[in-house]
Write a structure and sequence with these properties.
Length: 210
């Protein structure tokens, strides 16, 4: 094991992933109200666990101000992977509520520009339900973090999970009691889709397509 690397054991699957030291440091620095350091470390490990061939992309549904998108792009770049991070969000068209915040496009642009990631982090300014036909079926990592209502999460999984390639990973944010739509839709999806294994479940959930 690399000195300073962190070993993660996923539950209930028992799968073990490693977070490289630089990714762990970046996760600690990028920790925010959207994703904390533990979740970002696990997201980094998930991103690096997928065997990128150069053809696949990352798709993030719901980006808010782009911090997680930048985090994933930088984590992959550091390990030599140049996958594009496509973030789907209607930004200010969303009527934000306490539990479903409105995306901030200017902040997204600033986050991407300040890190020089304009060619790696690409916004698709649309509701996820409308954007699906424009998204290719080459998703290596899918992050579902848009509207957290049950019907929306169900629809996001139905529309985008089929676009995930074999071995690809689905990362469900906010898998908590505060968001019953996320837990219910995720549990239902795993129960009814044999091709997806639940690798991890805590306050987020990780699925992998066989
Ligand atoms: C919790 S925030 C995303 C946080 C982001 N993933 C991060 O880690 O920083 C939820 C986002 O979903 C967006 N959103 C709401 N409804 C959506 C929809 N139907 N399709 C895509 N994005 C949506 C909101 O505009 C908001 O930016």
């Amino acid at each position: 094991m690399v000195i300073g690397a962190q070993e993660l054991t996923l539950r209930p699957s028992g799968v073990r992933w490693t977070v490289p030291p630089h990714a762990a440091e970046r996760a600690d620095a990028a920790s925010s109200g959207m994703m904390d350091r533990g979740e970002l470390r696990c997201l980094a490990a998930a991103a690096l666990a997928f065997p990128w061939s150069g053809a696949e992309i990352v798709v993030e549904i719901g980006t808010y101000a782009g911090e997680t998108a930048c985090f994933v792009a930088e984590t992959l770049a550091e390990e030599g992977h140049d996958a594009v991070v496509l973030s789907i969000d209607p930004f200010e068209r969303v009527s934000g509520t306490r539990w479903n915040p409105q995306g901030k496009y200017r902040r997204y642009q600033r986050a991407v520009r300040s890190r020089g990631l304009e060619q790696r982090c690409l916004p698709l300014i649309a509701y996820s339900q409308d954007a699906a036909p424009a998204v290719p079926s080459r998703i290596g990592l899918l992050i579902v973090d848009g509207n957290h209502e049950l019907e929306s999460v169900r629809r996001d999984l139905e529309l985008y999970a089929p676009k995930v390639v074999p071995g690809g990973i689905v990362f469900m944010d906010d898998y908590t009691e505060t968001y019953p739509g996320v837990t219910t839709a995720t549990n239902e999806f795993v129960r009814t889709h044999d091709a997806f294994e639940l690798l991890h479940q805590s306050y987020f959930a990780i699925l992998q397509k066989s």
